Amino acid sequence: MDITLIKTFVEVANTGSFVAACDRLFVTQSAVSLRIQRLEDSLGHPLFVRSKAGAVLTPEGKQFERYALSLLKIWEEAKQQIAVPEGYSRAISLGAQYSLWPRLGFRWMDALQAEMPELSVHCELGMSDRIMRFLVEGVIQAALLYTPQLRPGLIAEPALDDELILVASYPNATLDLKDAFVSVDWGPEFTHALAIALPHLTDSGRSMALGSLAMEYIVNRRAAAYLPARSARRYLDAGKLHLVADAPRFPYPSWVIWRDDMDAKLSDVARRTLAGVVQDAAKEQEILVSPIEAMGDFTQQGLQFFPDKLGALSECLRVIKPGGQAVFCTARGLEENPLMQAQVAAFGRHFGEETTGAIRAVCGFPDPDEMRSVFEGAGFGQVAVEKVILDLEAEDGSAFVNGLMMATPVADRIAAMNQTERTALHNDILKGFGNCYDGFALRFPHSANVVVASRSV
């Protein structure tokens, strides 16, 4: 069977769209359609149900998917084993997003070969979508990512906690950054959270798609941007970057994604060596670089995304001076937040319920009693949790939704829609706001829990 047909099938299944698949495969839409047709003819069954909303696997398609993934894995394993250099008996292929490899990847590579000298290590770097595709196809066995996607046959585990902090190349910068702010693409979750916390920064005249290059750009110009705290530390310590006062921080943990069919011995060595590398990196690159002199450390729309909430809060407590306070704000339940409700309903209808997870996660830590328990468990005293409702307004509701559609976890699918499909989705999102939309303006509540906790003197 032609492996190209299998790869095309997997891409259409993963993206849910013939258009998106052709963009990833760098071929025309007609080529994708022809390949799928040839595969369906060979199997004697339709594999997709086509519609204006995209392509959904048929029962036969779902059954074939696991065999397709197995075929790709066997094919990639065969290519890798044939390519094992002379003098080596084993091989492993790793992947990472660009900004993660310098901090963790090089050390992991060294640790692997120190543990297994007979092991040949191959590395692939790229954007998240490219690395995820390599994982699914079996090109790589493990990868370091900031924005993992749940796929069959893959296991996601937390690697290293980090957060995005607002820094400027000049001292005493305030949140009124105007033309100094540079927008960096840290993923749709960050873009969405930033639009809620600091909406005036969403229309930056400068933007970068590759975050790993943003640091040098900011340092050498009068500019400001959100950057990973661990990467920014050495520049902060050297006085080349400065924290922007009162700016919210956003969690940005890294993950390691494993194929679940890795060789047991190789998997054990890879996990053990990575754990050591992560432990060393955590000691060398503390997220919060110095004790906080102000009374509070404020984070908006963030705590719910940390895989280890207790650990994150314990680290926060460590750097707050005695008598200081921490203030955290996290969204309450989905049913109390029309903005999230409207997106979940519309995206579920157009793309399937499986695409709504990232939006639901924003409201993933709504229980005030659970929040109080976690803060107390981390060692905070005088923990107070208060329900707060902000009344938000957009004078042009239609324009607001247009911007929202480009800053969501399904932005790639929206981009692949034709104009008729995008208009239908746009109207469905507006409809989801219910009485909050009067035909012109949007006025809706944002319901959140605000936690104020102190460090004992």
Automatic annotation (TrEMBL):
Transmembrane segments: none annotated. One of its GO terms (molecular function) is DNA-binding transcription factor activity. It holds the Pfam family Ubie_methyltran. InterPro entries: LysR_HTH_N, LysR_subst-bd, SAM-dependent_MTases_sf, WH-like_DNA-bd_sf, WH_DNA-bd_sf. Keywords: DNA-binding, Transcription, Transcription regulation. Belongs to the LysR transcriptional regulatory family. The lineage of its organism: Bacteria, Pseudomonadati, Pseudomonadota, Alphaproteobacteria, Rhodobacterales. This is LysR family transcriptional regulator. Residues 1-58 form the HTH lysR-type domain.
